[in-house]
Amino acid sequence: MELYATVVYVVSSELLKILGVQDDIQAKMENAEVMRPEIASFTTGSAILVDDGWLSN
Hints:
Elements: H1 2-19, H2 31-44, H3 46-51
C-alpha cells in the first residue's frame, strides 16, 4: 500500500506541474500531498486505507 500511495503522489504531482498548478507559498503541504488520500480512497476503497492506517474511522 505504501508503494501505491507513493505512485499516486508522484503522478498527482506531475499532473499538477503539467497543468501549471502552483502550490501556495504559505502552505506546509504540497497540493499533491492533499490529493493523495482522496485519490487512493477513490481507486482502492477507503476500507483498505483505514486498515493500513492512512485514514481514521
